Amino acid sequence: MNLIPNAPGLSPNYWCTWSTQNFGREDEHPDYHNYLGGVGSQFARAEMNEKNLRRWLQQFPKIRGDLYLMLDDGWDVPYGVHPDKSRDRFGTLELDEERFPSFTGTPAQRLKKLNDFVKESGWRGLGLWVPAQAAGPIEKGPAMEAYWTERLLWCKEAGVEYWKVDWGTYAHDVEYRLFLTQLASKLYPQLIVEHAYCMIAYNGSQLPTQDYAGDRFAEMGEIPQKSLEIHQFSQVFRTYDVFNQMGSSTTLDRTAYLLAGQGGLLTCEDHVRISASLGCTAGIMRSPYWNEIEGLDYDSTLLRRRLDEVTAGVLWQRLAPAFADGQVLCSAETLTDRWLFKTGECWVDQVFGQEIHQTAPAVIARGLPLPQVEAEGERPFVTCAQNPNGALSVTAHRRLLSTRQEVLPPCSVTLSPPSLPPYMGVFGSFQQVALRLPVQLGETFRVLGQSLLSEEAVDVTRSVGWEGDGTLLIPGSLIETLYRPTATPGDLSDPSVVFALVKEETL
């Protein structure tokens, strides 16, 4: 019996090309300076072409059908065009013919041919990076509406279903983003328009060059409120870029703040385990094509060797799709991650030599009460959610210590969902996961367990325990036993397992 549906899920997840454009270059003698800031971005744009796309299409074989292939910055401008010198050339939404010579015809035909090619390669379809501006000297008003009307109809003809609206002249203009959303809804309601509020890669500021203090998202001046305003009308709102080392704590604090404000779906970028356990979507950035680059330890926490967790998180959303709204609870207790950035440990050289700290709620729960978390010494961040369809998920997230260590502190978690979950997804290593059931099951129920990388569940009824009040006890050793044999050799992902309570007669 396979607990995971064979059909791709409905959550609008995608894999984005940007980080691989930058860190997946096939340079013979890479110089780490060419990966930093605006210089790095320009080298990354040069990687956006048909040759590389054909290579990138080969990854994530188990979940391609669940993912849009998001072409990021560079796809619609000629080689060498730089936003500092020619910003007004971005936003044509015309597939550059030199970069993609095989896809010919009108602008709509070129996009359709590329979209069809992406789908034939097993992916859900093509997604497009779109700047928050029109190309050329076009200002807001009738000319702007005519411009985007034409391009929306191109995408409708091509069947392109996802726009990632990012930087541009109107990047921080809430009214402009609302205009794009409403126009798309009118002309092409099948199109998903994702928005963001462009910001630095961590919360607050520990640098003297920025105006706001602290290390929390709520302390970042107008950014939190403007983000909430955009989140209210966005089909998907992106929590935005983070450093690989600090990503979990930075994203957790942004996610907690934005979920509490309600709105559409949230995408947590590359933090698939946050997405999986809080009902958000993922904009995956990591890939097996990331390189070892001398002098640039951009991936200190080895995300490129944690690809199984991407597959597992996306497969979980076949059972528990991303959802909007819902009650969010955050613990009063917070945890702080720290990282002293050495030279070459990210793409922003201003933080080299600085210790950045990021604080977020220790526990975040969506759709159920805050769980009890017990640990000795350091604690992990814990997130959990009960999906509108009843599926329950919980994750223990890794921490960054002041000693520059990344650890997953052992803990026990007790969950008290308001309704009986048909499935429970468990992400991370635990001493124990306790599930306090709202009803008595009796002896006719069996407990099934399955690694999210497997295609077959096993009966684990005899490997779990019960307390007198109807609490199901899942030992951490069982989670490890189910997961480890299915992991890809050399992959460093923490466990991802699904459990189900099934009546005996259905087996």
Walk me through the structure.
The protein is α/β, with parallel strands linked by helices and 507 residues long. It is 24% helix and 22% strand. The chain has twelve helices and 25 strands. The protein has an eight-stranded parallel β-sheet. A hairpin with a 6-residue loop joins β21 and β22. α5 packs parallel to α6 (142-158) and α10 (272-278) packs parallel to α11 (308-319). The chain is globular. The termini are close together. The relative contact order is 0.11. The mean pLDDT is 95.
Question: Mind sketching the topology for me?
Answer:
Blueprint: E1 13-16, H1 18-23, H2 37-46, H3 50-56, E2 67-71, H4 83-86, H5 107-120, E3 125-130, H6 142-158, E4 162-165, H7 174-187, E5 192-196, H8 223-233, E6 236-238, H9 247-260, E7 265-267, H10 272-278, E8 283-284, H11 308-319, E9 328-330, E10 334-340, E11 355-361, E12 363-366, E13 372-374, E14 381-386, E15 392-397, E16 399-400, E17 406-407, E18 412-415, E19 423-427, E20 432-436, E21 445-451, E22 458-459, E23 465-466, E24 471-475, H12 476-483, E25 496-503
Parallel strand pairs: 1-2, 1-8, 2-3, 3-4, 4-5, 5-6, 6-7, 12-14, 15-19, 18-20
Antiparallel strand pairs: 9-12, 10-11, 13-18, 14-15, 16-17, 19-25, 20-24, 21-22, 21-25, 23-24
Helix pairs in contact: 5-6, 6-7, 7-8, 10-11
